[in-house]
Design brief:
The protein contains five helices and three strands; from the N terminus they run αβαβααβα. The chain is elongated and about 75 Å long. It is mainly α and 119 residues long. Helix 3 crosses helix 4.
């Protein structure tokens, strides 16, 4: 895809997904981690899916990172990734959840205990 001066591709995003608007795997999130499965690529792979596979050839990426590298909307990359997961060419892992925060009362008790040790 050649780009316009503003950096946007000339081909609309919905054409890169073959007109599919929603991913077949709704649990695929923006921060899901994508990794190539190592399987041989079929010859009938559409250009956009092939481009995503090329990006994943370097290692694992989140959906958002892949979208930035491909200059496609995240929604389009979610559709492309879901198709590749369905074909067994890509593995998708749920995003790593952020660490749970400690309860404020626990932190206060620890601070009080440390102060008591100091005296």
């Amino acid at each position: 895809m050649t780009g316009r001066p503003g950096g946007r591709p000339l081909v609309p995003a919905y054409l890169s997904t073959g007109g599919v608007a929603r991913p077949s795997r709704p649990h695929l999130e923006r921060l899901s981690v994508l990794t190539g499965s190592g399987a041989d690529l079929p010859e009938d792979l559409p250009a956009a899916q092939l481009a995503l596979m090329d990006v994943l050839d370097e290692g694992s990426l989140t959906v958002v990172e892949a979208a930035a590298l491909l200059r496609l909307p995240v929604s389009a990359v979610r559709v492309l990734a879901a198709c590749l997961v369905d074909r067994g060419l890509v593995l998708a892992r749920a995003p790593i959840p952020p660490a749970e925060r400690f309860a404020p009362d626990l932190l206060k008790r620890v601070a009080d205990g440390l102060r008591a040790l100091k005296h």
